[in-house]
Structure formats: structure tokens, C-alpha cells
Amino acid sequence: xxxxxxxxxxxxxxxxxxxxxxxxxxxxxxxxxxxxxxxxxxxxxxxxxxxxxxxxxxxxxxxxxxxxxxxxxxxxxxxxxxxxxxxxxxxxxxxxxxxxxxxxxxxxxxxxxxxxxxxxxxxxxxxxxxxxxxxxxxxxxxxxxxxxxxxxxxxxxxxxxxxxxxxxxxxxxxxxxxxxxxxxxxxxxxxxxxxxxxxxxxxxxxxxxxxxxxxxxxxxxxxxxxxxxxxxxxxxxxxxxxxxxxxxxxxxxxxxxxxxxxxxxxxxxxxxxxxxxxxxxxxxxxxxxxxxxxxxxxxxxxxxxxxxxxxxxxxxxxxxxxxxxxxxxxxxxxxxxxxxxxxxxxxxxxxxxxxxxxxxxxxxxxxxxxxxxxxxxxxxxxxxxxxxxxxxxxxxxxxxxxxxxxxxxxxxxxxxxxxxxxxxxxxxxxxxxxxxxxxxxxxxxxxxxxxxxxxxxxxxxxxxxxxxxxxxxxxxxxxxxxxxxxxxxxxxxxxxxxxxxxxxxxxxxxxxxxxxxxxxxxxxxxxxxxxxxxxxxxxxxxxxxxxxxxxxxxxxxxxxxxxxxxxxxxxxxxxxxxxxxxxxxxxxxxxxxxxxxxxxxxxxxxxxxxxxxxxxxxxxxxxxxxxxxxxxxxxxxxxxxxxxxxxxxxxxxxxxxxxxxxxxxxxxxxxxxxxxxxxxxxxxxxxxxxxxxxxxxxxxxxxxxxxxxxxxxxxxxxxxxxxxxxxxxxxxxxxxxxxxxxxxxxxxxxxxxxxxxxxxxxxxxxxxxxxxxxxxxxxxxxxxxxxxxxxxxxxxxxxxxxxxxxxxxxxxxxxxxxxxxxxxxxxxxxxxxxxxxxxxxxxxxxxxxxxxxxxxxxxxxxxxxxxxxxxxxxxxxxxxxxxxxxxxxxxxxxx
Amino acid sequence: xxxxxxxxxxxxxxxxxxxxxxxxxxxxxxxxxxxxxxxxxxxxxxxxxxxxxxxxxxxxxxxxxxxxxxxxxxxxxxxxxxxxxxxxxxxxxxxxxxxxxxxxxxxxxxxxxxxxxxxxxxxxxxxxxxxxxxxxxxxxxxxxxxxxxxxxxxxxxxxxxxxxxxxxxxxxxxxxxxxxxxxxxxxxxxxxxxxxxxxxxxxxxxxxxxxxxxxxxxxxxxxxxxxxx
Lengths: 895, 229
Hints:
The structure holds 2 protein chains of 2 kinds.
Chain A: H1 5-16, H2 22-51, H3 53-57, E1 61-65, H4 71-80, E2 86-100, E3 115-123, E4 134-136, H5 141-145, E5 163-169, H6 170-176, E6 183-186, E7 189-199, E8 213-217, H7 218-224, E9 234-240, H8 247-257, E10 264-267, H9 273-311, H10 313-321, H11 326-362, H12 371-376, H13 384-405, H14 414-422, H15 437-440, H16 444-465, H17 468-498, H18 505-515, H19 521-550, E11 560-565, H20 570-580, E12 587-599, E13 602-603, H21 608-619, H22 622-629, E14 632-636, E15 644-649, E16 661-665, H23 666-672, E17 679-684, E18 687-699, E19 710-712, E20 723-728, H24 735-745, E21 750-753, H25 754-793, H26 795-807, H27 812-849, H28 858-884, H29 888-894
Parallel strand pairs in A: 3-8, 5-7, 14-19, 16-18
Antiparallel strand pairs in A: 1-9, 1-10, 2-3, 2-6, 2-9, 4-7, 5-8, 6-7, 11-20, 11-21, 12-13, 12-14, 12-17, 12-20, 15-18, 16-19, 17-18
Chain B: E1 3-14, E2 17-29, E3 34-38, H1 45-52, E4 60-65, E5 68-69, H2 75-85, E6 86-89, H3 101-111, H4 117-127, H5 143-155, E7 161-165, H6 173-190, E8 193-198, H7 201-205, E9 209-214, E10 217-222, H8 224-228
Helix pairs in contact in B: 3-4, 3-5, 4-5, 5-6
């Protein structure tokens, strides 16, 4: 039984030219490997989050509030216990811990701080319902947080005799120079450190943390007297339903019953929405970088096929002479390409399966969960990322192969008999003129194919991004970058050709190699330039953002935010600062937490949050939902704060008899759909306050001051449980003394050091940048492969030229010098265009997304340029060094 | 007439100059005739053969093969015409270098979907005395052997018309003679119309008719017997 002609011919051609297709194969394998690696990792981690959702929430249901629950609400929860439902109360807040009892040990002489911002969590002995709390030493939670038998070191201001147990994170011990058994003061209560925390199942997932975790009992939290009216506290009630019951009916019941408490009720199935969203976003963007690597590999595929068809002109003409039509020949080579694309994709799947184990290292510091444990806990391999990788690999092969294969139509069988009668070698009649691509588009088949290819690539990008808008933006940006790269590379090559010939033979020959007809220099520069562009863009963004938050802070930016200053502490707080730091002028702003109750009379339902989020995600408008559901910190001011500009309406004068007025920030106004005269009803701890929009403001968010979305007119918040936030600026050497003084006098007040917060932010940014750059390295690798593939196709020509040169007396050094100049020129042009495009792209992102100025980063640009030149030199040398050693006679005789 | 060419003119342009290769050539060849086209280099004989084979289109004029005007066929129809009607032998063999001998012979058979392409290709190679060399690549074969593979390939689909362009031009006289004997023997067996282009008057003398071209025009058209006279 004979195979169809296309299949048997494809097999015979591959058999004869497998070396030719090695780069083709690796280009696809690399891209698919990157995508599958990211995809498998995402799927595994998503699987783990889903499987361990109960542990990640700590219960079957969670009731979450941003203020203490009402008596009525508490009664409802308590009544559940009679139905066999377990209830566990958790409170989370930021607070200050002070070292008491002894000075820092000699091992921590100067770095140890006496007071430290912490993330406090008050739990009950039954914590957690699901998942495991791991501590060292490993003892029951009830023992670790109970009142300890020891007497805590007496403190001057301490009146409480109890010494509570506290579980702390290692980092607290390091920062404060403490060890297990030492004592702490948090608020008004004293603590003994009983153990260190190794794993907390339900820690709110965020790469961004204000300070080390400290776990204490609810009783201890009450003793600490930290929760006051208006305090920023997150109350969570975890519920455990009997194993045979479903949590869903209870969810509906509680959502109805707890409406007045503005409680957010969810089941474990919605556990860790932030973690899911974060992973979703992170893997989406890493996936798109992976797709770029695949598309760069696609350029390698296209140039390999292009070179292959050029090689096969004679064979194709013979086939046509023997009666094969263009369709048959195109199908033959397409089938061959798709088979290779499929095999490359399969190899990519295996590479990706290995890469997913490296992902936790790349993402270390970004994931709040232990990614090593997550990735190693897999017992099944997710099939979807594998199938998706295979499909993307084959589809990319198809899209990048179709265009060069179309040239087959233009190869006429007359080619060989003309050769016979005219005595010339077959000329590349159809593929001539790389500048002829625009003319080619006049051919309806070609232009139709171009549309098909762009549509196909867009489809792949949308599929990978799982979003129409992000996919289209990605493909638009990529196409724009490719077009710019092509145009600039061609302009530079043409410039080289026109430029006066240099006197050096080496340079002249190198420039000739770049600009000769049929040179693949443009493809190489585009492929390498894209990788350079991505990596440099990320580096520039990272540098700009870090320098923005670090160096460009205004000189008068505050050093500290002191939060939760109670109204009755305001005067004492100001007095303390004036007495001890006479030159410091604290700025105290009243604030109160609220949620939106209604906008223009339309209620904002509490649990619309989830629906909005889902809908928002589908439409790519997560931001809009956030403006409705977020907590708003309100203030009342009589003067317009600095760096605020009223762009619509008027700031209130002295006449405030018109009832509560609100001034709203322009973006919030746009997303909420409100204008002048609209009414917004705020839910302030259960009380509804309606206010009329009287002005819309533009806010300079990056000025490091207290900025507000909503500012109410003076008097509007009378009777509301507000607290004050104080911003203070001190010299660095006074920071610790100030923090200590405030925390000593007002244990409930939390000091947030802006510098430390910014450092944390910078660290997160660095991790993020590293993760993206690590994946972007695959784009650079793909670009190098494209270069190696292109050089492989010119190997024989280079060999022949080099032996002719040698026969004429040239030394090996001269030939090597000529090659090196050519590769270095290629690297310089690719690096130059890549860095210029990266500068433009990073400017765009900074200007349009972050609203920040772009700064020149000469070190990044110069080092990237040098790196690119080194890269092309290295790849070029590896691809062609064997040519240098060839003896001329054998080659010339063969010729 | 199986081949009927009427007022065929072919001009090629290159380097800014137009060169007339065939100038108003008209010619009829009846079925099963063996005809030779002779003439000096550049007289247009190979071009004329290529036009009959449908490898290119004339600038003007008409070529009918088996009653069908081939100059106006679409590309796919032209490919089918070559597949079904024409066997072509080139001076420089033009075997596909990546295929073995039997695979080269099998290509036209596979193109028409012959399920027994391999066995028929091997039969043909046996007929040209290359059974033992069937799995060799062209580069492993001598010039004579390569041309024998090309002859076997040309006869593979039993085409009604066989066109041979200087089939012995690249071979020494002994081998050339063997190829001619093979070509004529196979042609007799298969009953094809044979048109061959040659410089070689000895070779031409084996045919029934000799057409002489010079500067793209037919200057004589006679049988070998008359020419011998």
C-alpha cells in the first residue's frame, strides 16, 4: 500500500535534510516548552489552591467584616453552634510590638529595633478548622497562645499581670534581636514568645506584607486594648459545617441575615480571591512572554522554510515538470513542516514539564504559599496546558510556514530547461528582492494569506491571554515592534550599502555579507531585537519605578504615618511631639472607614462584589468593580489639600449649610458614573450618610501625602467613629526614637515607616521583574536560534567564499575578523533598535499607565547593547568556526 | 496529428534586451512518429521542445496536442497535461538528489496515484538494467546510470509523447549509444511519439524525420533517407 504522494515525498525530503530542520525543530520546542512550563505551573498551583481551598480559608465558610460585629450579628453566629456548626473568631490588624525586659543581645548590637510594625492575628484555640498550623516547637495552639505560667518582665506602664503566649515569625526575632522565651509588649498587653511560625494555612495571600506575623489569643487582643471605634481591623468568623452538610444553604442564609453588618460571606470555593487573581495575572503575562518566544521561534521557522525552498528550487521545478501542480508541492512541504512542528511541540512539552519545576525558583519571593510544596504535591499531570502547547506549536508552525511556501506557486518548470539552454544555474526567480514584500501584497492570494496569518496570530494571542483586549493589545504591540524593527534594520542595512566603502577589506566584506541580496540579516535582527526589547523594557520599568519610589520622593515627604490616633489622644499626641521633638510639625487628618451604600439612589448590593468581579474579569474591567466594592477612607476638610486641583464644580466655601457635600477624585467619579449633583450614600459602620457631589478633583497620588478619593465637607461626619492619621517628617537618625516614644505613650497607635514600606514594595518589584525577565530569556534564546538557523543556511556560501579568500592568500584571522565584524554589526543594530524600542515602550507604560516621567537609564541601555553584541558574536562564532579550518583544495575541487 | 504547432514565437527578455528564440515556427508531428530536431546551439530547439512539454508558454502562436490547445491551459491543467501526456528526458538528467533511484522513477506514478508505484518503478529500473542500483542516490550513480534512471522515469506513466532533450549530450559516445538503444527499444515497446533534440547527426539518423532549426526558424524538414542522399 503506497502512502499518498505528499506524505511519502515529505518523509523523503525530511530524511535527506534533517539537519536543515534541526533549528526549525528547536525553535518550536523552545517556545512551546516555555508556554507549557508556565501553563503546567499555573494549572498545578490552581489545582492545589482548589484542592486545598478549605485549608486556605481555614473553614467551610467565612464571614468577613471591616469592623467589629454587631451584637445581633454575633447572636446569629452563636446560634449556629446549636446546629453543630463550629464558629472560630479571627481578628487581623496591624499593630506595634515593643521589646521589653532586656536590651538586644550582643549578636544584634545595632541593627535590632526596639519597636516593630507587625501584622497581628488574634485566634482561638480551635484554630484552624482545616489545614495545618506549623510551629517550632510543635505544640498545640491552645498551649502556645494561652496565658503563660511565667511572670512577664515588669514594665513601668504595664498594669496587666497576665503574660500571654505569642507565636511569631522568624523575621520578628531577627529584626528585634529576640529569641523564643523573650517578652514583647503589644498595645497594653505583655507577651512571651512561645514559638516561631513556620506555616499559616490561611495567611492572606499577598506578596506585599507590612511586617512579621504575630499570633495571639482573642483574650490577649482584648487585653491589648487595640481595637477602638474606627480602628482598622479585619474581623473574620470561620465556620465549619458538619461533614455531611453543604455550605451553600448556610451561605444564602447568612448573607440575608448579616446584611446590616455589611458582612461579606463566602464559601471555601471562593477562597483566596486575591491569590487566584494574582496568579491569574502573573501567569497570563508570563504566558504572553512565552508566546513571544514562540513567535520569535516562528521567525526562525519562516526563515528556515524560506531558505529550504530556495535550496529546493530545482527539485520543485523537476516535480512540476513531472506533472505535480503547485498545490501538490505546497501540500507536500506544508505536511512536512507541520510534522516537524508537531514533533518540536512534543519535545517542547517534555521541556516544559521540566521547566515547571524551575518556576518556583523563578517566582520565589512572589508567592505567599510554599511553591516547592505545591509543585511537588502533584499526583496527576494537567492535560490542558499540554494540549494547548501542542496546538499553539502546530498553529504557529502553520502560520509562519504558509507565507514562504506560497513562493512555490511562482516557481515555473521552465526554470530547468532555461538552465539547460542558457547554461546558467537556477536563479531565485521568484524569491528575489526581500524588499518586494509590499509588491507581493498586490497578489490577492498573498494579501489574503497575510490577513489570514495576522488573524491567526491574533487568535493565538487572544487564546493565550484569555482576553480579547489583552490579546489584541499584545498582537498590536508585537506587530508594531516587528514593523519598526524591520524598517529600521532595513534602513540601517541600506545605509551601510550606500555608505562609502571602508578601506578595510574585513569591514567591507562584513558589510557586504549583511547587505547582499538574500541576506537574512533582517530576520536575525528582528528576532534578537524583540527579545532585547522585552528584557530591556522590564529592566527600565523596574529601575524607573524603584528610582521613582526611592530617590524621587519629595524632600518634604513624610517619614511616618501614625494610624489609629484616637480623638481623645489627639491633643496628647501633638503635645508629645512638641515636647520631645520641638521642630516636628505633625499633620493630623481625621478619617473614617466606609463602604458605598448607594450611588444615585441605586443600592450597591454587598454580594454583587463577586458577580461584578466575574463580569469585570470577562470584560477586562476589574477596575470598575473595585471602585464599587472597595472600602473608602473618608475625611472632612475645610481646605483643598495640596496637589489637588478642582476640575469640575467648586470647593466648598464657608457656607456648609447645604447638607453633606462630597468632593470626588476624577477616576473614581468616572468609574462610579457620577457627576456634579449626584448623590452618594456611604455606609459608615452601619449608619448611612448621604452626600451630594459638589466637585471633582484631580489628585497627585505620588506625592506621599494622605490623599483621598472622597472628601466630605466639614461637619458632615459629626458623631462618626473617626480616628486620626498623623504624617510626620523626621531626620533618619531620629526615626527609631520617635517610633519608640509614640508607641511607648500610645500603644494602640501604629507607626508605618514609609521608607520600610517602599523597600518592601521595591523588593516585590524586583522579584516580579526577575520573574518576567527569566521567562523573557527564552525570547533571547529563540532569537539566538533564529540567528544560528540563518547562519546555517548560508554555511556553504561562507565556506566557499572563505576558501576562495584563502586561495587568494587571505589568512584565517582576516576571515575570522570579517565574520566577527559582520556578527558584531548585526548585534549592534539589533541591540540598538531593541533598546530604542524598549525606551519608547517603557516611556509609554510609565506615562500612560503609571503617570510617571521617564528617566534615561544609560547603564541599562549601554550594557544591553554590549550584551547583544556579545551574544551575536558568540552565536555567530559557534555557528561558523568550523568553516575557518577548512582546506581550500578539497572544497574548490568539489565545486 | 498528435502535435500541431502553428506560428509559434518565443521571445525572452533579459538584461534589457529582448531575444527572439523561436520565430514563427509551424510544425505538425503525427502520432507514433520518431522525429529529431537538430540545429546549432541557440537555434531554439530545446525551447521548442519545452513549449511542447508545457514547461513554458510561447509569446504568440498555438500548440495543440491531441487536439487540445495547451498554451491557454491553467497551471493545474498544465500540470495534469504533463502528468498524462508527456515523458521528458533532460540533457543533465535532473534527478531529485534527495530521492533514491526507485523513488525518482516512482514520482510520476505516485503523482497519478498508482498504488503499485514502487513495484512498477523497480520493474522499469530492471528494464534499464539498474535493478541492483535501485536504492542508490543520484550522487552515487554514474552519468550513464543517472540518465538510465531518467529514461525509466520518463517512461513510467507510459506517456503517449516522449520528449528527449540532448539525452546523450553529457555522456561519452559508448554510454550515449547505450542510452539511445534503450530509448529506441522502449519507444518501440510502448509505441510513443518520440521527439528528440540533438546535435548528433548519427542519433538523428535513427529517426524517421529530421527538422533543422537555425536562428529560431525551421530551415529544413525531411526524412533521414533524403538527407543521406
